[in-house]
Amino acid sequence: MADTNRKTSHTCKISLQGAALLNDPQWNKGSAFTEEERQIFKLRGRLPCKVNTLEEQIKRAYDQLQQHDTPLKKNSFLESLRVQNWILYYALVQKYLKELMPIVYTPTEAEAISNYSHLYRRSEGLYLSFPNAETMEEDFLDQVKGRDIDLIVVSDAEAILGIGDQGVGGVAISIAKSVIYTLVGGIDPARTLPVALDVGTNNKELLDDDIYVGWRHNRVRGKDYDEFVDKFVQLVKKHVPNGLLHFEDFGVTNAQRLLNRYQEDYAVFNDDIQGTGAVTLAALMSAVGITKTKLSDQTIVIYGAGSAGLGVARQIRDAMVILDGMDKEEATRRFHLVDKDGLVTKSLVDKAQHAGWAEFQRNDDEAQEGTSLCDVVKRSKCTILIGTSTHAGGFTEEVVKEMTRNNAHPIILPLSNPTKLVEAHPQDIIKWSDGKALIATGSPFDACDLPNGQKAIIAECNNALIYGGIGHGAILARAKKVSDGMLIAAVQRLAQLSPALKSHQGETGKEGNVQDAEGNLPPLLPDFETAPDTNFEVSIAVAQCAIDEGLARIDFDPSQLREKADIARWQPVYPRYTYDANGYGES
Asked: Which of 150, 155, 160 is nearest to 181 (CA)?
């Protein structure tokens, strides 16, 4: 991994001058160009005379942001800033990370994506369209040749952020995901490539929209689809041999299948499957640590059997096998999956022809006692209930009370987002469980009232607490693949950083008690404000695991890992510029 990281002491050689420099977001400093730089790069007459610091620019940009009265308008403002000045954008969002994350990502980004064609201003990223399959390599090399690429984020946009098929608008989720990798994982934005695989859309609103900018055609399926995706993946392997390929928001019929096909041959990661599973598993490991049990002691009901639900199930099941030495078949039997048609049984699998469900299917005779969520919770006496259904209110009072009857501390994770689709509000879960439930959610919630008058700080199972670290660690190690061991290493490190678990272990309070200095119930996962530092710790654990498993292709001594990880951590600060006709930048 070449050291192009910007530090305050770093000097960049720049070939751009004048308007070309001001119009390049990677190198533009705006009003922060120094007097010397203004002279050298022919900017003196193009800028007002005041030289601002980055902090002054952040203050001005934040004040401008507050003038926009809706999340979508704020999202649009920030996007405009990003395509003008990378450093200022990332410095601003990083400073107000917890406040602005819902603006630059879920839930606001979903609204922006659904309006992509109407909000479209300029092209960004790589668009690979099915009608142009013959020129794919040429189009790919136009964006890759001469660049050092570490991360490629690709989406076919079939299952975007709970809003479904968005066609070519999927490029926006690839861009947003790349942005988060930079914000929390420290990956240089110049070394990322967002990609849209435009294979058509089955979204009738888009097909009927005259403004739609994508390929106006029904989605390509079957052999043609597989060959198109494979052609892309082979280009990645050929031209970016040491990178990380991140699959994002692929549909349930393709997500796991594609991951299975490529994960042994390249460093491939699917956040919807592996990221959601990993951060959920970390929350569970924190919770079972508090209850002084093991993962292998648990019985788990997952409400919502799409790609996220299946990914969570597999991740937890594999951890039972790897960490607790449990037989895989026995571990699989600890799971009960419930979808919109009820308990996933053999008959339902046959009817739906959903091969991904088969390994978790229950016997048909279990359906005789009822297949609703409440029926399954009652019969299974589950210790853990996880929601990935996007069914608002799916965790009813009856369901929560049934869990509480069987468990001193039921572990309940309503993970669906955005907030309006959550299976239950955490305050309701606390009320219905008499304050006994251990809770984590998929969206941010305010602290909730406990029966004793204290507060419960609700952990957000935000994938961005872990996938940035997984990505950065894999890239740092130049890993041949992202192994199960690397994912487990990431999960264990994140769980170790749990404020609730630290409190219970006496690290930040009295051993055996789960409360912070104010007497409140701390969260099962670190606060999102700490995401950059949390992901940094995760990245070191992941890279170390890759080294231990013989998957790393590093050119440094493993004892230098933390130092190298810190050096490779991109920071949004302005470097010094000197002019060089053969330097960075394109004229």
From this structure: 150
Q: Mean pLDDT, to the nearest integer, of 290-313? A: 92
3-state secondary structure of 465: helix
d(CA 466, CA 538) in angstroms, rounded, equals: 7
Question: What percentage of the chain carries pLDDT values higher than 90?
Answer: 83
The β-bridge partners of 385 are: 301, 412
Find out whether 349 and 373 touch, Cβ atoms under 8 Å. no
Q: What is the DSSP letter of 361?
A: P
Positive or negative torsion for Cα 11, 12, 18, 20? negative
How far apart (Å, rounded) are the C-alpha atoms in residues 153 and 29? 27
Q: How far apart are CA 364 and CA 342, in angstroms?
A: 12
Q: At what angle do helices 484-496 and 307-324 cross, to 10 degrees?
A: 90
**For residue 510, how many other CB atoms are within 10 A of its CB?**
10
Contacts of 548 (CB under 8 A, 6+ apart): 485
Enumerate the active-site residues.
105, 177
Write down the pLDDT at residue 349: 86
> Which one, of 119, 339, 334, lies nearest residue 209 by Cα?
119
Choose among 143, 142, 130: nearest CA to 197: 130
- Closest of 439, 446, 460 to residue 526, by C-alpha: 460
Across all residues in the chain, what is the average pLDDT?
93
Using the CB atoms, write b or e for 88-97: b if 16+ within 10 Å.
bbbbbbbeeb
Closest CA to 307 of 373, 265, 258, 362: 258
| Contact call for residues 65 and 95 (beta carbons, < 8 A) | no
CA distance 113 to 80: 15
Tell me how crowded residue 326 is: count the other CB atoms within 10 A of its CB: 18
Cα(88)–Cα(250) distance, integer angstroms: 32
Q: How many residues are present in the chain?
A: 587
Residue 252's SS3 state is: coil
pTM for the model stands at 0.91
Note the pLDDT tens digit of each residue in 198-224. Answer: 999 999 999 999 999 999 999 999 999
The CA angle 386-369-411, to the nearest 5 degrees, is: 20
Query: In angstroms, how far is the first alpha carbon of the chain from the final one?
Result: 26
* Cα–Cα distance for residue pair 573/531, rounded to 1 Å: 19
Contacts of 423 (CB under 8 A, 6+ apart): 303, 387, 389, 391, 392, 393, 394, 395, 414, 415, 416
Q: Is the pLDDT of residue 5 over 70?
A: no
Pairwise CA distance, residues 246 & 170, whole Å: 14
Q: How many CB atoms lie within 10 A of CB 546?
A: 27
* Percentage, residues of the chain above pLDDT 70: 96
